[in-house]
Design goal:
By secondary structure, the chain is of the alpha+beta class. It has one helix spanning about 1-30, and strands at about 35-40, 50-55, 60-65, 70-75, 80, 85-90, 95, 100-105, 105-110, 115-120. The protein folds into 2 domains: about 1-30; about 35-120, Immunoglobulin-like (Sandwich), CATH 2.60.40. It has a 4-stranded mixed β-sheet with strand order 4-1-9-10, with no helix packed on it. Strands 3-2-6-7 form a 4-stranded antiparallel β-sheet, with no helix packed on it. A two-stranded antiparallel ribbon has the order 5-8. The mean pLDDT is about 85.
């Protein structure tokens, strides 16, 4: 009888360990994982050929942004991050900007003006 109790306790402990492991895995990789959202507004008076958002683990690329358009670029991140924004205008000029530091779950706004990029909170 004592062995049966011990065996039952081991099975229960194993099941609880598996449940806790799955819960932690879902927390780290699930769809609700926070990321960074960068809204880019084109106020340059011309089309933008390409908007590139370079971050710690890669880049997000968006092509053919029209005059007055706004686009939301997102990327997943754990904890802290930073990004650089590079916009190539129709006339070939590049505008550069971006956040030096940003935290997971943050939203920010980048406004492309004719000669510069203005960063702000939404």
């Amino acid at each position: 009888m004592r062995i049966l109790w011990m065996l039952g306790g081991m099975v229960l402990g194993s099941v609880l360990t598996v449940i806790a492991g799955v819960a932690l895995w879902l927390h780290d990789t699930g769809p609700a994982r926070a990321g960074i959202e960068v809204r880019v507004e084109n106020r340059t008076g011309q089309d933008v050929r390409e908007v590139r958002l370079e971050h710690d683990h890669g880049q997000v690329l968006y092509r053919a942004m029209g005059k007055g358009d706004t686009v939301a670029l997102t990327y997943p991140v754990r904890g802290e991050s930073s990004y650089r924004l590079i916009a190539v205008l129709a006339d070939g000029r590049e505008l550069r900007g971006g956040a030096g530091y940003i935290e997971s779950g943050a939203r920010t706004r980048e406004v492309l003006e004719p000669e510069r990029v203005v960063s702000s909170d939404p």
